[in-house]
Design brief:
Layout: H1 9-35, H2 37-40, E1 48-54, E2 63-69, H3 87-100, E3 103-109, H4 111-117, H5 119-133, E4 140-143, E5 154-156, H6 165-188, H7 194-197, H8 203-212, H9 220-223
Parallel strand pairs: 1-4, 4-5
Antiparallel strand pairs: 1-2, 2-3
Length: 232
């Protein structure tokens, strides 16, 4: 390398910084190629959809599932599991995903239905609703988690939101949409901190339940430990 033997400290520092950037760029390129591997290797003409949910463990608010059909190219730089991304970057990615996706569908299950049907049945219902909301009939259904009997071509992938581009994209758009709803809920039901905790069981949220009781979007089956209220 041209400057490798240069004894000047400033040159060596700049060289080390440049090498570090190159290594990081190469690692990110390899990660992105791996993320798109299943889309790249789908048979010609076959449609691959990725599904992911958000809000499964929340004490309040809806369960939301997104279904996303992506093209193999162009790659969406920085695409990853939504939980690994900063909120501002997640929002920017959601815009790119909506622009580039062939189809996006959503399935939403409210708190009362979750209380009535249970989480397993609600998750399956939300995923089927998201598939029904697509404008495309998929050939392959990739989900992150256990089998749910969603139809032909269903494949469950452990940590799929970090390993499959379409599942990662679903995790991003689902998270951004549900977060926006919870910010609206914060204005409608003040005091619970929904804009910050998004309905999850933070210490402040649990304390607010103790002080204010439950609001209409709380899942009573999830919050019985914090209240004296019986579900039925």
């Amino acid at each position: 390398m041209r400057y490798q033997a240069d004894p000047r400290k400033a040159v060596q520092k700049a060289l080390a910084s440049a090498l570090k950037r190159c290594q990081a760029a190469a690692q990110e390129a390899a990660r992105l190629e791996s993320l798109y591997f299943l889309l790249d290797n789908a048979a010609s003409g076959e449609t691959v959809v990725g599904l992911d949910e958000v809000g499964r463990g929340a004490l309040a608010g809806p369960l939301l599932v997104a279904a996303v059909v992506l093209k193999p190219s162009p790659r969406i730089a920085g695409l990853d599991d939504s939980k690994k991304l900063k909120a501002s970057f997640r929002q920017a990615l959601a815009v790119l995903i909506r622009e580039q996706a062939l189809a996006i569908g959503f399935g939403r299950i409210e708190a009362a239905a979750i209380d009535h049907d249970g989480m397993s049945a609600s998750l399956r219902s939300a995923m089927l609703a998201a598939l029904d909301d697509l404008a495309i009939e998929p050939d392959h259904i990739f989900i992150d988690g256990r089998p749910l009997g969603l139809g032909r071509g269903e494949q469950c992938i452990v940590q799929g939101d970090s390993r499959v581009a379409s599942i990662a994209a679903a995790s991003v758009v689902a998270k951004v949409r549900r977060d926006a709803w919870m910010q609206e809920a914060d204005a409608q039901y003040p005091g619970y901190g929904f804009a910050a905790n998004k309905g999850y069981g933070s210490a402040e949220h649990i304390a607010a339940i103790g002080q204010l009781g439950l609001c209409p979007i709380h899942r009573r089956s999830f919050t019985q430990a914090f209240t004296q209220e019986r579900l039925f």
